[in-house]
Amino acid sequence: MNPGRSAEVAGGTRGRGWSHFLPLTFQEYAMLSSKFVVGAIGGAAAVVAVGGLGTYLLSGTESTTELDQFSTVLVDGHTALAANIVEGRTESRYHPLPWVGTKVSVTCPGALKAVAGATLTCVGKESGGRTVDIPVSVVKASAHSITWKFER
Fold this sequence. Notes:
Layout: H1 26-58, E1 62-66, E2 72-75, E3 78-81, H2 83-94, E4 104-107, E5 112-113, E6 119-126, E7 131-141, E8 145-150
Antiparallel strand pairs: 1-8, 2-3, 3-5, 4-6, 6-7, 7-8
């Protein structure tokens, strides 16, 4: 038995028989403590990274919407995304998480033409009555879908 190591006993090492009842040496305690601190810091960093990624993904203001019989109307001979679709998607993404954006009720003056560069200004009304202009624009459009975004 080595007198400098309280964890070693005759015939074995810590973890066998009754030796796990012996006190830790300073080095063993320091090693366990440092492993805990490194694990706790690593775990906290992972939680922050996942939270940040989730916030980024949920706070996006760009949407791609399929143009079908349920979501389109005709405006000046052009296919357009119905106003209720623009309102609902904008409202849900304007305030996706409590720490992103402001909760608003959105109304749009009309449909959003499925033409790249087309714009529309919707109005968001906060619970206190204050209104916010929400510019909406088309990024790209095809015969089957429209990609559009709004400004927060």
